Amino acid sequence: MSTLLLITSAPTSIYAWHALGLARALHAKKQDFRVFFYQDGVSVANNLQWVPDDQCHLMNEWQTLAIRLPVCVSAALSRGISDEENAQRHQISQYNLASGFELVGLGELADAIQSTQRLIQF
User: Fold this and answer.
1) Residues with catalytic function
2) Sign of the C-alpha dihedral, residues 107, 108, 111, 117?
3) CA–CA separation, 59 and 47 (whole Å)
4) Does the N-terminal or the C-terminal CB of the chain have fewer CB atoms within 10 Å?
5) What is the pLDDT of residues 40-59, one digit of tens each?
6) How far apart are alpha carbons 12 and 39 in whole angstroms?
7) How many whole angstroms separate alpha carbon 108 and alpha carbon 116?
8) First to last CA, the chain
9) Full-prediction pTM beyond 0.85?
10) Stretch 49-74: mean pLDDT
11) Rounded to the nearest 5°, which phi and psi values hold at 100?
12) What is the rounded average pLDDT of the residues 105-122?
């Protein structure tokens, strides 16, 4: 059964951490799943977020899974997150999309929803 994890919660939310936990479990069991970061969930891809040394960094934890990490481009840009290409296109002086994450359009979310058997939103 394929699963889509739609992460809409901010990185400070316990729900964002639950999404990571489920992704780890699905990955360990080699089950088919995809993720999509949308709304406040895109903030996990912000490379400029500071996390105290005594706490886990959600961005780093997602990166260690070594899976595809698509992020809604519109939601990201509206929250100050950009990759190099979009920074140039929109005359933004810096870019801060974390390594391993990629900005994509909502068409990709629509395709993922259509091709999955189970959708879980966090």
Assistant:
1) 72
2) negative
3) 8
4) N
5) 999 999 999 998 888 889 99
6) 14
7) 12
8) 19
9) yes
10) 94
11) 95, -20
12) 97
Given 3-state DSSP classes, what are the helix, strand and coil percentages for the chain, each rounded to the nearest 5?
40, 20, 40
CATH number of residue 60's parent domain: 3.40.1260.10
Residues sharing a CB contact under 8 Å with residue 115, sequence separation 6 or more, in sequence order: 2
CA gap 102, 99 in Å, rounded: 8
pLDDT, mean of residues 68-96: 96
Residue-range definition of the domain harbouring residue 97: 3-121
Residues 11 and 53 sit within 8 Å (Cβ to Cβ):
no
Q: How far apart are CA 43 and CA 9, in angstroms?
A: 9
**The token pair that represents 45 in the structure block:** 């891809």
State residue 1's pLDDT score: 84
Q: How buried is residue 82: exposed, middle or buried, by Cβ count under 10 Å (0-12/13-18/19+)?
A: buried
Percent of the chain predicted with pLDDT > 90: 93
The structural domain count of the chain equals 1
By residue count, the chain amounts to 122
